[in-house]
Amino acid sequence: MSTFISGGCKNGKSFYAQRIAQAGGRPLYYIATMIPRDAEDDARIARHRKEREGWGFETLERGTDILSCLDRADPNGSFLLDSVTALLSNEMFTAAGMDAQAPAKIARELVEFVRRAPKTVLVSDYIYSDANLYDDWTEAYRRGLARIDRALAAACDDVLEVVHGQVVVHKGALPL
Fold first, then answer.
1. Beta 93-94 vs 97-98: how paired, if at all?
2. What pLDDT does 32 receive?
3. Which residues of the chain have pLDDT under 50?
4. Which residues pair with 4 in a beta bridge?
5. What is the bridge-based pairing of β-strands 28-32 and 78-82?
6. CA–CA gap between residue 123 and residue 126 (Å, rounded)
7. Structural domains in the chain?
8. What gap in Å lies between CA 34 and CA 26, rounded to an integer?
C-alpha cells in the first residue's frame, strides 16, 4: 500500500510516516531528500536521524534524481521518502536559476517510484493556506508542489493529512 501524507510543519508527519513504513516490512529504507544549506537544516536532519535510531531504516540520501534510489534498493522493500517539499526545492532552485519544468519531472518520477515500489510512504508539507502574496518564484514553487501533491494523491492508495498530531483520512484508510 502506498501512502501520501501532508500537513503543516512539526505536526508529527514524519513520526507517523516512520510507523507506516516500518509496518510495511523489510528491507526498510528512508530516503532523505534534504540537502542542508544552513545550521537550521543541519539541526533538522540531526533530529530526524535521532528519531529514526533503532527503527531499522537504511538511509538513502538522495536530494535529486529520485528514481536512482531503486538502483541501490530492493523495490519490494518498504520506503519512506521525506520530503517531497525538499526534493522540489533541490531540483527547482539551482545555481543556474529556477527550473520551471522541475515540478512536472518530479511528479512523473514520484508516480513511477510508487508504481515500481508500491510500499512507499511520501511526506509533503501543506503550504497552501496562507493568504499572503509572494514573489513569482515562491508562487511558482507553491504551484509546483501542489501539482506534485495532486499527482501523488491520485497515485497513492491512502492519502492522509496530519493536523496537530491528529490524522485525517482523505482517501483510503488509516494504514495503522
1. antiparallel
2. 95
3. none
4. 122, 159
5. parallel
6. 10
7. 3-171 (3.40.50.300)
8. 24
Residues 108/61/80/5 CA torsion (nearest 10 deg): -60
Q: How far apart are the first and last CA of the chain?
A: 12
| Identity of the amino acid at 87 | L
* Angstrom distance (rounded) from CA 90 to CA 36: 10
Rounded Cα distance between 85 and 6, Å, is 10
From residue 80, alpha-carbon distances to 21, 30, 92, 130, 167 in Å are 6, 5, 22, 28, 17
Q: What is the pLDDT of residue 129?
A: 77
Residue type, 71: D
Check: CB of residue 159 under 8 Å from CB of residue 150: no
